[in-house]
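To the structural biology subgroup,

Please find below the input and predicted structure for histidine kinase, which we are adding to the shared reference set this quarter. The sequence is reproduced verbatim from the submission form. If anyone notices a discrepancy with their own records, reply to this email rather than editing the shared folder directly, so we keep one authoritative version.
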Amino acid sequence: MQILWDDGERIFCRELRSGVDSDSPVLVARPATEQPRPGCLDRLAHEFGLKDELDGAWAVRPLALVREGAQVQLVLEDPGGAPLVQLLIAPMETVTFLRLAVSIAVALGKLHQRGIVHKDIKPSHILVNCTDGQARLTGFGLASRLPRERQAPETLAGTLAYMAPEQTGRMNRSIDSRSDLYSFGVTLYQMLTGSLPFTASDPIEWVHCHIAKMPSPPSVRVETIPEMLSRMVMKLLAKTAEERYQTAASVEHDLRRCLAHWTQSRHIDVFALGEQGASDRLLIPEKLYGREREVETLVTAFGRVVETSAPELVLVTGYSGIGKSSVVNELHKVLVPPRGLFASGKFDQYRRDIPYSTLVQAFQSLVRTLLGKSDTELASWREALLEALDVNARLMTDLIPELKLIIGEPPAVLALDPQQEQRRFLLVFRRFIGVFARADHPLALFLDDLQWLDAATLDLLEDLLISADVRHLMLVGAYRSNEVDAAHPLTGKLKAIRSAGGTISEITLAPLAKGHIEQLIAEALHDALDRVEPLAQLVLDKTAGNPFFVIQFLQALADERLLTFDHEARQWWWDPERIHGKGYTDNVVDLMVGKLVRLPADTQQALQQLACLGNVAGLKALATVLDIPAAQVRAVLWQAVRQELVERLDDAYGFVHDRIHEAAYSLIPQAARAETHLRIGRLLAAQTDAQALEEAIFEIAGQLNRGAALLSDRAEREQLAEFNLMAGQRAKASTAYASALNYLATGAQLLDEDCWISCHDLIFALELNRAECEFLTGQLGAADERLKALADRAVTVIERANVACLLMDVYLLLDRSDGAVAVCLDYLRHVGIEWSAHPSDDDVRHEYERIGELLGERTIEGLIDLPLMEDATSLATLNALGKLFAPALQSEANLADLLICKAVTLSLEQGNCDASCVLYANLFRVAGRRFGDYQLGFRFGQLGCDLIEKRDLRRFEASTYLCFSCFAVRWMKPVGQCRDLLRRSFAAANRIGDLPYGAYAGNNLTADLLFAGEPLADVQDEAERGLAYARRVHFGLVTDFIVAQLALIRMLRGVTLTFGCLDDGQLNEPAIETHLSSNPDLVLAECLYWVRKLQARYLADDPEAAMAAAAKAQSLLWVCQAFFEEAEYHFYGALARAAWCDGVPVDEREPHWVAMAVDHRRLQTWAQQCPENFASRTALVGAELARVEGRVIDAESLYEQAIQAAQDSGFVHIEALANELAARFYAARGFGKIARVYLQDARYAYQRWGAEGKVRQLEHTYPSLRTEAPVPGPTTTMTTPVEHLDLATVLKVSEAVSGEIVLDKLIDMVMCTAIEQAGAERGLLILSSDGEHRVAAQVTTGNHATQIHNAPVSAALLPESILYHVLRTGESVFLDDAQIAAPFAADPYIRQQRARSILCVPLLNQAKLVGALYLENNLAAHVFNPTRIAVLKLLASRAAISLENARLYREVAEREARIRRLVDANIIGILFWNAEGDIIEANDAFLRMVGYEREDLALGRLGWRDLTVPEFRELSERSLAQALLTGHARPYEKEYFRKDGSRLPVIVGLALFEANSREGVAFVLDLSERRQAEEKIRESERRYREVQTELAHANRVATMGQLVASIAHEVNQPIAATILNADAALRWLNTQPPEIEEVRQVLGRLIFDASRAADVLGRIRGHIRKAPPQKGPMDINVAIGEMIEFTRGQIIKCGVSIQTQLADGLPLIQGDRVELQQVLLNLIMNALEAMSCVNEGERHLRICATLEGADWVLVSVSDSGPGFASDNIDQVFTSFYTTKPTGLGLGLSICRSIIESHGGCLKACANQPCGASVQFTLPVVHGETHA
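Predicted structure (tokenized):
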């Protein structure tokens, strides 16, 4: 034996086998292991099965499949030669390569000519250098005889290193002969280079290579390889089949050309590849033409569903074959996981009565998908399904048996009334759909051929589209528009859905235009558009642009060789004349018939049988009707499968298109069809055992019914009637009542009148079920007539009971309560119960007493152990009594009480059953209310609940809990205990589909909350939830209940316009009152409304209106007995009467007192049973009764009792009302102070209740109650609502990604993983921050290293339109071929780069967009299989989280690095401290500051408290406390002791490491240099002030110098006068007698002149001396006058006239007299000097002082000189600026400094018409007056 190769699975060897003549060599393929996998054996068997189709000239033919024990061997011919794999040890010589390649291409071409696709071409499957020199192929284990086949998703077919991209299961493309050419290309690559084009380590990487990577050309790997050979190989390796060679013959042609060139010249000239490349087999491209807009509309609609979550129906309409299904299936490519789930089903015109068959078909596919999930994923789905379906899972497993493989075998569901069953089914189906339709994976459900849908599915679709609890669902329906007219059920249902607010959009498909047909034909024939135009026109004329017809017509032309491939011309050829002459039909069905009749006879027969079975039929059923083994079915249907007329499904076969189905069915002659169906039905019935009969019943009954007219045998007709009964009952169980009615009617029609005797049970069951379905489909009249007739046919009690119960349901819907009562009483008479429609009180008492007699010594609690009721008559009777309860309540209370008692006695006699539970719960109504046996009634009610829990009698679970809560517990236990029962009732109602009781539970819960005074905001929330539920289940009665409750709540909360009025925008009092009174069935709602209105009017202090409402309620009170509203009526009615009595005369009050007493006694009775609920109300009514009767002491006591009881019960609203009424009571008696206290308590209690409307009413009535709400302080505890965090779901994609925190490495890992997973050629990571999007990284397959860009997004890097769509919508974009995908095809990047496959996924972290992942593959279209998006979404989600973590890690690291650099840089001192006073760590800068060494720190010698100078320790402790409280402390200055004892001034800032920590960091800045700098600054300022003072003094001295002449004149004048006066005095003294009087006068003048001189000298001294400023109050006018006198000599000398304008009474100013006079002196002297150049007559000096506003004095000095020369007048105040030859330029600068130091302002301006003016302002001194 010679082993040729061993791949680990199989061994291929050469052996010698004994023959007749001699031993001969053979080849043997055998499994490599003793226990091979089944797939390995299947492939050996498959290869052997092809032996007759393989030719030994080009293939290694199988000879035998030998089984030796457990071993299997495939024996093959041995043509000699060796496997090619043995030669691939090094690159081949070119000539060797070419000769081998040509021989392989020849063999491959021969294989394809036989119509076989190999699917596993590789070197080990090729023998070369055979005996005849040719190559041969082997390894046909995967070979397919189909021209093309679709690879199942996620299924690999072939060998990883050699498989074509479409074989990976990742592309939406079929496998055909061109797939072999790709594998041939890989083989040639290996032959040329000695290596594979790709290397990979795992299957995912191999798949990615084939889909996305372009290998290096062979000529790059090995430079000696001729370029043309390299190009040939690269063309074979094209990712898209259309871009490869199209045939092996074309490859052979080019290889031979290369061989010829090389042989001749050792060189290969350049030539065009694939010129002979057109395929000789017609392959229609797998793409849509002319439907881009329609597909986009569908995708947009799905986007709306994703965005809004609201369900939507999209209808796709058009004629048959127009491409409806194809358009919707394009949606499938977009919506595969994780973006969405897609399921589809197809209605069948021949199977319309099979209920929900299409939905079952759709969800079966989804369920089967789940079965392929991992254990972890499947467990998650199982949990979701069990949670959603709960106890009703059986309803779904009966429809979809595969579901049992996930959730197991569920228990049977409870039997319910038919209407409840329908509601339950719809509820369960909605929940079932909700498992698949979720926000993270919305569901698109495609239902094809709606024109044939069944009524049950139609109703279900309506429910799905208008139910508020269905979200994230997109329904797509396709139907033939020409078969759905105005009378079609679908039309009416669509109208109803639209009216109910359902969203429906419609897409109408038009025929293909000529251009689209031209494109299709050109791409199919690989020809130019202009050449195929005539053929396109011909096709358009014949098919009218119907796509299915177009394709079938082209294939028909090819089949009949009217469209042929010319091998010599290498192109397709057709003759229009011959085509016209053929006379093809214009009817596509006829065309398909013509195609079918050319099939083998047995195939035609099989197709006819398949057509009878339906569009799809199971393999087992096909084998049965064809009467052949299942294994032979494939062979019989092979030709039909090969011609793509039929497709193989999972264990089934189905027609590819409806038109083929119709054509196959039309092959059966009309007259033979009934016989055919009958034969099929008989075969199916005979082959189906009893256990499987129920599942197959629809198929069997359907087939037999179509042939029922041929049945003559009575027994067979009766059997078929039984089948129809079974089918009808099964359809009815699925609530498909219309379908059930059809089966039942058909069954009944099979039986004649004699059957009432011969098979009574059968015909009675058919008629009863038929009547029930008529009732359930709204045919009440027909049901009534049928049931009346059946009543006469009933022969047993059970039959009578069933008829009676159903007839009662009919009468209730017909609003004929009397009829229902009469029917039940008639039935009861048949079981010995004679009742009147109006029984007496004695009748009720007698039956009630029987309960006690039957109970005997037994305890009520012990009755739980009674045996279950088995007597059929008793069960039927109890069921009838239960039905009687509702009509009895409406007509006669005694009858209702009587039937309750009878039901209890019957249960005590016969045992418990489901109906016992609810009737026990209702006994309290009789025992307590009627006979005072409250405890007995309560205990029976508890028994009813215990039977549910302990005996599992759950049929009436919801109603039992509700009735016990409402009619018993409320009156015996604190109201809070009712809530659990009501919630259990609500849950049970939703679980079993008893939705009316769910609505009742919501209403009663609101009533309880109102009764208990729960916060009104919470009560309103509950009421709104209950109202929404009632409206959703269309329960108008409960809707009316809750609307009234909600109106009262809104009124109390102050939302209504008028307090006390129920009008709130949603409710209008007159309208609702008219509505309620107009319908007798709304009497309960009307009564409850008037009770609520009574409450509203009373609380609004309108007793008259309250009394009117009470009167309305009183007339209806009989209907609401045992409801809480009855208690509210008696409570508020009594209070309203008390208030009314205050306004009526005393003699008219007695009737009201009597009525109040009646109400009070009723409340007392209830309070005795349950003081927690009624004591406070009873006491308050008692208090009001005592008040109006004048019993003051009693009233005081009872008000206090009411308040205390209300507080004990937690009834804040009763507490509020009691306080309010007590306040009025005390106020009326003159105790105002006491009344105010009660009022304040009332207001506070109303506020706690949430009754803001009542609070405002009290404040309006009593304004003193108004208070300002306190503003919470910084230390006030308060609560505030916060948004719930949207917790992101962490999806584990890989440990590497989740564990990496280095950003660059993480990005590299994410990108490499992403492109491998998706099959991308190039990928970009875009990260978003603060609204800016940047490219963080780029990866290409040619360079695995990630290129970090951090570049802005641009059109040069990626299609911006796609990126921004993803970033703005948060949706993924997935394009099969970007070149043709609207609306992105116009993007500049796509056009310039010729982008093909594109995928862009958003990166989300906690619902926040952090970026996007963009992937592309420009080598091929259809690369990104939608099923891979799930993995990418997981990767993207995890990557987003990891990227964020890595970013945060980098930020933290960078922050830590910055802090460390700051610490190590020693720029400032940094220390780490704790609150205990320790310095844990410090940098060198701090240690240098304080003079310590690091050793001191290590030894613990440094503590920040010890270092702190004592006077700063209190400040340090305050800063520490602030840091511990807030996390940081403001920087503050302090001083440390240095080690040498000196003090160090510092500034310190503190911060905690984290909240609640007692450790932190401090930043310390040395202030020593700053302190020195501050001292220098202070010294500079002191020197500046000294210099300024010196300059001012110098200025004054200089000014004095200017005045020296004037001063001399001023001084000389009084001195001269003194001398003269002295001489005169001497003369007067010398006269005899002396003139004493004259001397006295002269001496007086002498003293005056001396004073004048002294004054002048004093002023001079004051201006010249150096003295500190002394500010005080002064009169500015006096200072001005003094300076005018001081300068008057100079003024006169200069020839200047002076004018003063000094306002009288100017306020004093605060100033230094010397400094201000210096300013005035400077200004006067400057003015005099300026006017020196002006003629004397024109020199004017004007000085003014006025008041400027209220706070300023304005002084101005103006002259008539030349004015200021500078344009910038303000420049004159600049130091050292002067226009005088001898000036210093300091005068005006000093003046401004003086004025500004006084708080004023000095400025200059022009004096009109000439001269200059200088003004200054000074602030006045308020409060100072002139002395």
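Summary notes: The chain has 69 helices and 38 strands. The radius of gyration is 54 Å.

Regards,
Lab coordination
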